[in-house]
Amino acid sequence: MKFFIDTADVDEIRKAVDLGLVDGVTTNPSLIAKSGRDFRDVINEITALVDGPISAEVIATDAAGMVREGQELAKIHPRNIVIKVPMTEEGLKATHIFSAEGIKTNVTLVFSPLQALLAAKAGATYVSPFVGRLDDVGHDGMEGVDDIHSIFENYGYNTEIIVASVRSPLHVLRAALIGADICTIPYSVMQQLCKHPLTDVGIKKFLADWGKTGI
Ligand code: E4P
C-alpha cells in the first residue's frame, strides 16, 4: 500500500520523507490555510521534496473555473501535480476534461461507493473516500472503502483509491486489509503507527541487560 502524507506543512513532509514513508502528498484548502502560506509557494516547495503525486485542490465551483485553475496548477511540475476536484456534477465535468487532456485528478469529498463509481467513469485518476468524517456521523467509513474496492475490481477500473480523512492507525490497518491502493495519513498518525509500548519496554530491557555486562 502506498502512503501519502496529508498535510501542507513542509516540515512535516520533510520528516516523513526522512522516514522513507512518503509516496505522495495530499493538500486541501483548509490545510493550506492552516499553513498560513501562499498556495503556489507551498506546492512548489513540496515538489522539490517529493517525487510522487501531489494533490492541489481547485477553489472554483464551476467546471470552466476548475479547468482554468487546474491547468495553471498542473504547470508547476511536469508530471507530479494531481488536480483535486470536488465530487459534484461540475467536478465530474472538469474531471472528464482533465482526463482527455492527460491531467491527473483526485476526486475528493467522496462519501458513497456510487460517487466513487461516477468519478471512475468520468476518468478520475484517484478517488478519495473520507472515512473519518463518515465515522464522525455514525457510519463506518471503511465499509464504503471495501465496497468501492469491490466495484473497481468488478469492472476493472484503474482509478486508485486514496483512503482519506484518516484519524487513527485502525483506519490504516483496515485500508491495508481491504487492499486499498493508498492511505493519505496525517504526520501524527504516521508517528502513532511506528509506536508500540512493548517495543519501548524491549529496548529498555536490552539496554539494562547490556549495562550489567560492564562492556
Ligand atoms: C484528503 O485528501 C483530505 O485532505 C483529508 O484527508 C481530510 O481529512 P479531515 O477529514 O481530517 O479534514
How does the SSE layout of this entry go?
Layout: E1 2-6, H1 10-18, E2 24-26, H2 29-35, H3 39-49, E3 54-57, H4 63-74, E4 81-86, H5 89-101, E5 105-110, H6 113-122, E6 126-129, H7 131-136, H8 141-155, E7 160-163, H9 169-178, E8 182-185, H10 187-194, H11 197-213
Helix pairs in contact: 1-3, 4-5, 6-8, 8-9
Bound molecules: erythose-4-phosphate (E4P).
Any overview of this molecule?
The chain has helices at residues 10-18, 29-35, 39-49, 63-74, 89-101, 113-122, 131-136, 141-155, 169-178, 187-194, 197-213, and strands at 2-6, 24-26, 54-57, 81-86, 105-110, 126-129, 160-163, 182-185. By secondary structure, the protein is α/β, with parallel strands linked by helices. Helix 6 packs parallel to helix 8 and helix 8 (141-155) packs parallel to helix 9. The model has no long low-confidence stretch (mean pLDDT 98). Bound molecules: erythose-4-phosphate.
